Amino acid sequence: LEKLKKELESRSQRVAELENVIAAKDANMRALKDAISKALTNFEGKGLTVEQRDGKVYVSMENKLLFESGSWYVGAQGKQAVKQLGSVLAENPDIAILIEGHTDNVPYKGNAQLSGNWDLSTKRATAIVNILRENNAINPENLTAAGRGEYAPIATNNTSEGRAKNRRIEVILTPKLDEISKLLNDI
Prior knowledge:
By secondary structure, this protein is of the alpha+beta class. The chain is built from 6 helices and 5 strands. The protein has a 5-stranded mixed sheet with strand order 1-2-5-3-4.
């Protein structure tokens, strides 16, 4: 009975440690969201939103802020927004950065360089990664570019307003969970 009691106390201590690590990660993500919102305040209302959900920070940038129709070249205003975001990300090396490109469901009818919406969304995500990589303080190992094409809409594609919302870049920031994994393996 004494042995079981000690094991239970030990497990309870590890669970408390795990709860503290999770609480610290949540606090860090809230601080990161606030820092990003502050850094990008001049872009809010121009197609940029910042929110925290499910333990992650989501920075969503509508294509009107970043790209011309059918293009993956980032304009001056979009570059400025991405660079300002990069300055905050550079101060947070323990964050995984996933850049997702999204399109509407209107088939791509541009030049032969692209095979369709999925290809366009991937090239747009890669364009954002390349701007972030200009900041030497951002570890390239933390960056991932992904194209989602038309397959993760956030609005209906039946209206021009909905299609505009679906054409976006999402930067999804996730804390690295090495400490939590280690503690879970010890339990």
